[in-house]
Specification:
The structure is a single chain. The chain has helices spanning 54-62, 91-94, 99-105, 109-113, 121-137, 158-171, 200-220, 239-252, 264-275, 279-285, 314-321, 329-334, 342-347, 363-378, 386-401, 433-440, 467-488, 499-502, and strands at residues 3-14, 33-44, 47-53, 66-69, 73-77, 79-85, 107-108, 140-146, 174-177, 180-181, 184-188, 194-198, 225-227, 230-231, 256-260, 293-297, 324-327, 351-354, 417-421, 446-451, 454-458. It is of the alpha/beta class and 511 residues long. Strands 1, 2, 3, 4, 5, 19, 20 and 21 form an 8-stranded mixed β-sheet that branches. It has a 4-stranded parallel β-sheet with strand order 6-8-9-13. The chain starts with a strand and ends in a 9-residue tail after the last helix.
Amino acid sequence: MRTTALRSSHAIVAAPAGLAGPAVSAGPAGPRFAELRDAVVLVAGDRVIDVARGAAGDALAARADEVIELGESVLMPGLIDLEGLVDIDHLLLDSWWSPEHEARLEWSEAYAAAPREVLTPAERSTLRRYGLVQLILHGITTAMPISSEVHGAWAETHDDLLDTARTASELGIRVFLGPSYRSGVHVTRADGTHGIHWDEAKGEAAFAEAERFLDTAAALADPLVTGVLVPCRVETVSDELLRRTAQLSAERGVRVRVHATQGLDSEIGILARERGTTPLGLLARTGLLSERLILAHGVYLDVHPDVHGEDRGDLARLAEAGVSIVHCPVTNARYAFHLERLSQYLAAGVNIALGTDSFPPDLIRAIDTGVQISKAQHGDLGMGLLAEYVEAATLGGATALGRRDLGRIEVGAQADLVAFSLADLRMGAVDDPLRTLTLAGTGRDAHFSMVAGRVVMRDGEIPGLDARQLRADGQRIFERLRAAYAERDALAPAGGSDPEQLFPPVFPRLS
């Protein structure tokens, strides 16, 4: 079997048992990672088979069929993004909205009764390729993709996700996939009020597509593609579909990612008024609270000051059930709904993974944002430990997926690895490589990645990719998506919306 040695100035590897560490990096059971300098990682097939440093590392490299010199870099476990945006992000258009602007970006009731696909199948395929490429270029090796439903006819289809699976396999990124489905959609009425437009028949059809995709994913027998169930925002999915999701998850042993505890009136208020429950109450009564559940965001629990501001048992309930939360620090910051102190969640025993859920899909920026917000929340520079966020981006994601072989560099683990360059003058001085990377770098400093032993990015480029053409295609598709908002605007003035007024520039443009 062919072997490859990766040589790097720094590597973040699994900590040996019993290793003691400083308080700034050690959890209750001690540090879970250790830094290795002048490191060599030896890969055979899809696995890591040895790790060494110094002269022992030289000996590993000498017996390898190929040596890849990564230079002054930090070699890490491949990053795991469980909210990996496969989209031309709406962030440019909606992260600065006023309440009126937000209302105009939802579907109108009239549009919801007869929606359409904004993009052609070919354009949707290009959109997914664009998103997967961005994930790879930012150092992500495993992703659970998410895309906006606002531009679709209702929900993602089986064929959409089959195309995603094929593209991911071609590019070499590991994915956990399923078409999203919903029974209803948030709408703005002509009088400016909000509600949910329900269409149970479309929900049933979309769920059938999701179930069919599980069979398709299994038949592909591709180690890089795993089928999952991804219902949309919990308040837009009927009790019946949530119950059937839980049943199917248990029967097939597949993960479920659901968006919940991310909205106050738009979710918690609606569920209280219309279904007489809370988000966690709904998940519990439909049978979804289990170790297979991945809860996107997990912000508005009882500990949040906008809910109760005290611990009434939500965290313990999640920990006992084995639920994982996908924390998205950059999205939280951009849309001003902060998770209330990550340390509370970890202390309660809740597993935390990370997601980008935004453009760019940059987990380095997410880690740094999360650390700084945590420090501000605590009013203590000793809190918001960098180690907690690095572990969430690797080991936390692996735990959420039930994959002990991901998220670490150790003998027997999958050879999913990423290297971030520390060599640029703009990176500054290097003391601890992770502090330098997160404080001075971004995901764009990723210059090498490997998934299951296959090199998927080298010298910052994806082999065979026409990046210039993809960028041009992405801009063209973005313009089509932007223009389509006017068609759905429930509050449009007479004569319809003008996209230039709907999305005004930061400063006036001179003609």
